[in-house]
Amino acid sequence: MPVTFDPDHLRESLRPLVDAQALSAEARVYQRFYGLDLATRKEPVVSRLGRFDIDGFEVVSQVWWPAQPVASLFLFHGFYDHMGLYRSVVEWGLDQGFVVIACDLPGHGLSSGERASIDDFAVYQQVVNGLFEQADALQLPKPWHLFGQSTGGAIVVDHLLHHGPDSPAQGQTFLLSPLVRPRAWGWSQLSYYLLKPFVKGIARRFSDNSNDPAFRPFLEADPLQPRQLPTAWVGALGRWIKRIEAAPRSTRRPLIVQGEEDMTVDWQHNLQVLSGKFDQPQILMVPRGRHHLANELPEIREQYFKFLTGHLK
Asked: What sequence ranges are listed for the domain Serine aminopeptidase S33 (predicted)?
């Protein structure tokens, strides 16, 4: 998989989404590379690529419009991920008549920042607000729905627990493999405190987090994949977990999809926490599902997308 675009050059060439900047040749190459041009759809889709600034980061955002939009979907990706891995979610959202808007988190994908690192999860909440501002400027149709996978789910959960009543996103909430605590968190904390004085990060180990045999090779060759686990991110996660555990209960009712073969997050613990924090969340357990549900086999995706569609307001 050759690198066919320069992430830094592409990011620096972008203006805010509201400027309706025409896609450059490099932007079109990027979209084709990840299938985000959605070239196989029967109806043409209008898309834009743009940039906004948050807390010293240049955050790259993207939006897709269906022919007759009825609502909007805010998509937040997982740790190590970027928008390019979520074509299946974008397609599903468009099929529902949603405008889909997303961004690469700081340190991920096309956005600036040390790769996969963050000093404080509060920055992610600033990104959420920044994406809301982009949507306001674009006058995206309401209701606004939220969609997050893994760390993206953690970001959505944080937003709802602390800003749910006054959030502009009063539509439905969709969570895939939401992160509260990763698997073997006790060992991760011990490793963090032992390693923090000596190293800034450790080499990333790719795992088979999807039943699709093509997904791991794609990740390993993906030019936008971080290659280290930064100790700063682990420390920020530890502080965030305490914030979530102390958060007030919410009256929101998210839809949660969790794979029973997920070896990335401590999903038994996480579902217990989320069930206590939200008002009767609807949970779909997927027996064969691994962690990266957005890139699972088509039959697994079909199962949970049917569940999500059936619960739309």
From this structure: 68-297
Tell me how far apart the alpha carbons of residues 18 and 34 are, in angstroms, rounded to a whole number: 23
Backbone phi, psi, residue 194, to 5°: -75, -35
* CB neighbour burial string for 36-65, b if at least 16 within 10 angstroms, e if fewer: bbbeeeeeebebbbbbbebeebbbbbbbbb
Whether the CB-CB separation of 188 and 182 falls below 8 Å is answered with yes
Q: Which residues contact 252 (CB under 8 A, 6 or more apart)?
A: 160, 164, 173, 278, 279
State the first-to-last Cα distance of the chain, in angstroms, to the nearest integer: 41
Average confidence (pLDDT) over 34-60? 96
Q: Kindly report the average pLDDT of the chain as a whole number.
A: 94
What is the C-alpha separation between 128 and 100, in angstroms, rounded?
14
State the pLDDT at residue 200: 74
d(CA 109, CA 96): 26
- Is pLDDT of 23 > 80? yes
